[in-house]
Amino acid sequence: SAVACVVVGAANEKLREVHQVGTGKIKELPLLGAEVLQVHAPPFVTKESASSETHGHAPAFSRVQRRRSFIKKKKERAGIANGETAKGSDGGGGTTTEDISVPKDLDLIALPQLCFPGGLQIASEQREDSYHYLVFTDVFGNRTHAVVVQYYRPIQDVGHQNGHLSSSKSSRLYTAYGICVISKYPYYNALRDCLSCLLTQLKPSWMGDFEERVKEFSAKLALVPIPPPGQLHVVFNLRPLQIGLPSREDKDRPAIDLDLHLPFLCFRPRQLLQIITSLLIEQRVVLLSCDWARLTLLAESLMLFIHPLVWQHPFVPILSRQMLDFLMAPTAYLMGCHLHHYEEVAAETDDLILVNIDDGTVSSSWSDGIDLPDVPLAAAECFIKRVEGLQVHYDLEVCHLGDSTEVNARRAQRKQWQSKLNTHIQNITLELIVNIFREVHDHLNYEHRVFNSEEFLRSREPADQPFYKKVLDTHIFHSFLRDRLTRKMDAFTRMELSTRTEAYRLRSMTESPRRPTMQELARKYTSPESRLSKRLGASLPNLGESGGSLAGPLRQTSFKNIQVDSGRFRWTAVGSGGQLRSPQRPVRFFKLPEFPPPLAYHYVQNYYQEMITLLGKAISGAASGDSSLLARYHYLRGFVNTVAGKRLDALEDFQNLYKTDTDIFPGELVNALVDSLQEGEQALADRRPEIKHLISRVKRDHERERARHVDEGVKRFQLPKKHMQLEDFVRHVQESGIVKDQGTIHRLFEALTVGQQKQVDPEIFRVFYTFWKETEAEAQEVALPASALEHLEANECVFKLSSSVKTSHGVGKIAMTQRRLFLLTEGRPGYMEVTKFRDIEEVKISSAPFLLLRIPSLKIKTTLRKETFEVNLKSEVDLWHLMVKEMWAGRKMADDHKDPQYMQQALTNALLMDAVVGCLQSQKAIFAATKLAHFDRMKLEVPLMVPKSTSETLKHKINPSLGLTSPQAVDVLLYTPGQLGVSSDSEGDGNPKLWCALSDGKVVVFDAASWSMQQNQVQVGTSRVNCMLGVDRQQVWIGSQDSVIYIISTRSMSCNKQLTDHRSEVTGLSLGERRSDYLNVAYSCSAEGAVIVWDVSTLQVRKQFRVSCDRLQSVQLCNGTLWCCKYTDCIMELWKNGMLHRKISLPEEQLWTACIDVGELCVWHLREPTKPFQRIQLPDCAGVTCLIKVKNQIWVGGRGWSSGKSRGKIYVVDAQRHTVEKELVAHTDCVQALCSAEDRYVLSGAAREDGKIAIWKVE
């Protein structure tokens, strides 16, 4: 790790003056100016210095040769502390500059006053050592961290060359020296402990040894490697303490090596929320304390509390006396200063948030009160409840334990407690951020990188709006949005996904416009005290919950298990600490060897070699299944090989790392390593295919990364200002969030441009958009009588309400939900159901006589009632007629095809008709609206009769392309069974899953228990997926056209492993027969004929061979024999070792094959593989794309004809009798994928025109 060490203190001349005057004569001990006395920065040893040492036979410790007092040196370089370089003018002193090489990114000018922010005070008695912490930020926002110890030594009489003290003890004076250790990483506790160890060596030593000891100390720290993100920590001995460097939890978080509970000891939860608010709305915040150490520790904790939002402004936790004018800066900032400047700071500067750490108060410099918006109520209450359950007192934790006599054991025990507590605190603060911002993603358009801020604001609770208005305009929020739009899989996303309720997942699988559900309307009428907050669930409902179920549990104490399921997310407090459960991964430690003499090159090289050997042993000794730990060892060894100059060995380690965990792959380091290869090394690398492959991949990724950063802006939605052709119109509608589907938008374009030039006027768009939004707002205000709430289902919403009209059942308003029409009677408010859409028989317009006029009315005939329902809708009648017919047609299609999405689309069409009529306000408005009557037209054009066998076998349809702008082909399907005994709050859950590969490497995951979408998408490369395989219940292997096998962890739902040994597209994957508990193999094949046998646990290649053919299509293991399918017309059979063979004696078994362009199946005897013994003709079939065996049936997917149209078809064939039992009309496009769910269901996926997944029951 790059560590620099700087020693700061008073100049010798000043000390000599003070010493000569003597204590008796000084009335007041002076404050002296501090200066830089020494700088020690890497490199401490180089190859060149080693070669010169060998001639001079320098021993390992060069202390004797080099001992020159830093006080003498100070004389020789008076200008250094002012940032000038020594000119070397005073007789040969020019060489001294090489001893004080300054790290280029370190500003030494401000360092002395930061090491002594209160000034350097001469003391008349020995004082306690005092530590504080610093943070430096460069112009790019990169932070450097430092720990400073101030320790006192007696002032020596510098005139005495022998270093003995001349002054008597009674009149002795003491001066402070500041030793500052600077690192790129925030290891505050570890560096503080290192300095404690250094002081035990410095205190008894002569001043002459001082510089050499500090330099040796710095050189030792420079040998310590930084652990990679994950569960591996690095430990080393620096007598008398054992010191640990904790790793970062993941690559997006910094390492946490401080006590995160300190802010909770200083502030009550409400004050903490005020401080967090002032950061989120980018105020000018000043921390004040009498203890310099508290300032930085509190400031750093606050930065971690708002993670993953990143503070973008000046961050200076400690200001010395001379720096107070920084507080006049006009921008937002977070700074800290000593408490005795409080009055001065408050008086001089307006608009400051003053945080008094010592008193636990938050105030403002411009008024007595504090004018900050409140954190959204639901999130705040949840946070306060959590914090009340935190156990932040270590003494309570250990009061039942005896005291350990061994200092390192005691420290380890305390560290373990602290680490656990830090994790709980991070979860609580992350949950706060998630609860504040979780609904942002509902208002994002990923395709055009747009955030609809107005819409987001409008959907907030009125009391929460002031907070969001301020937050939405900040830099901090803008960069958070950028990460959301790139679908960054960080801690925020993981928690947001894992706390969604099932009801939210189900609701998010519909694209229909949002309105308040009955459940939410019911909540409106419950008293605020009896619920956590309606905002918790106001945007989305929980289907299985009654309106008032939020009452009650929250009154309990944190010692109970509390579970509030409020529609939008799960709120769970568990155990005595009320903590969020998060799986604590077991931590492993890698102990470094004892440090060598650190200033001799060959000793340092031997040390690196010893570390490499130890890591090699750790790699071979790691459990083969623990690929995560293996990856961390490879990372460390690659890093050590790099600094030891073994570049090819380092690349080999990084290649293994790439295979086992791409999440922690250090792309920039490897790119720099590749650039530094010498010619000979480059030639050797070219001879090793896996390293050559890694180099080309790293270069490609580097270029892609650079290109990606060019356009990553975030746009706010704005209404168009110019006339729009179709393409522009589609973009604007998608950005507005009204509808995404391109087909629907094309029909809307037709409607808005009826009888005119094919372009939409911006004014028409504005009126249309406004009408749509007003309709949405009106729906929020719908007041329904209690009787209506009782009759409607929890997730029903009122989408359209007529004006007051006369009907055949009295006067009232007609209301439309997604399921039914009902009448809200006036006078005595009441509810009367008109009809559910599925029960309609006929809808027509007629005219009712009224005095001498004829008023147009709508007549609705239903199957459940004899009499026709009539309603005099007057001028609204044509629109209602169109809307009801579209909803009826959509309901019928949804029922026939078991596809609820048809109903959602019909609802969207009906609401768009409403908006079109509302905005056009002309004679042609109704004609324009007919352009949107999509399902009604389909019903008239092609009465889509679903064959009886299809209707009986089909259970349900789901749409994996939901949220995309057009349907995608379903390329591959994979079902993975559930894991019994896995609780839902461990990482991942135990439910069975359906994995669906769409075009361009998108993989969508459904919960197969409820068929709700679990994960919008996991991206595996950008090429088409050819095959998927469930391995070990822990991972899913995905073979891609780009020649890579991607491995997704079923727990974290992320792809962090890649197998890159194939040289062309991966076409098939198959699991070997498990022979024993420890040996598990998988087979993969690629198009050019390569077959690779993998060890599943270590991901190493066990064997590989080639099959000669034009294109190898798939591999399948059957009774010890590997069957390989070629693209032409033959199947080859091999022993598992790769020898081609024909003759085998097996019990009578059959092999079934089919061709992509012939409508027949061939059945082969394995004993006679030269020709099929039976051919089965498939009726009306044009070709077969997939087939699977389910129980004693063969299910065959392909394309064929039905009612004269090309359709995706499935044939169910009896495996014994060889007859076609069922012919199912499955999809409107070819069936591309089939998979079985535990032989109870079969799932089929269709090509792009259809893009749906159908679920069939197996007889």
TrEMBL record:
GO molecular function: guanyl-nucleotide exchange factor activity
Classification via PANTHER family: DENN DOMAIN-CONTAINING PROTEIN 3 (PTHR12296:SF21), DENN DOMAIN-CONTAINING PROTEIN 4 (PTHR12296)
A GO biological process held by the record: regulation of Rab protein signal transduction
Highest taxon in the source lineage: Eukaryota
Keywords annotated in UniProt: Cytoplasm, Guanine-nucleotide releasing factor, Phosphoprotein, Repeat, WD repeat
InterPro entries hit by this protein: cDENN_dom (IPR001194), dDENN_dom (IPR005112), DENN_C (IPR043153), DENN_Domain_GEFs (IPR051696), TPR_DENND3 (IPR057977), Tripartite_DENN (IPR037516), uDENN_dom (IPR005113), WD40/YVTN_repeat-like_dom_sf (IPR015943)
Major localization class: cytoplasm
GO CC annotation: cytoplasmic vesicle
Species this protein is from: Oncorhynchus kisutch
SMART domains: dDENN, DENN, WD40
Region (Disordered): 74-97, 508-531
Protein name: DENN domain-containing protein 3
Cellular location(s): Cytoplasm
SUPFAM superfamilies (alphabetical): WD40 repeat-like
All residue ranges annotated as the UDENN domain in the record: 69-491
Subunit structure and binding partners: Forms oligomers. Interacts with 6 of the 7 known isoforms of 14-3-3 proteins.
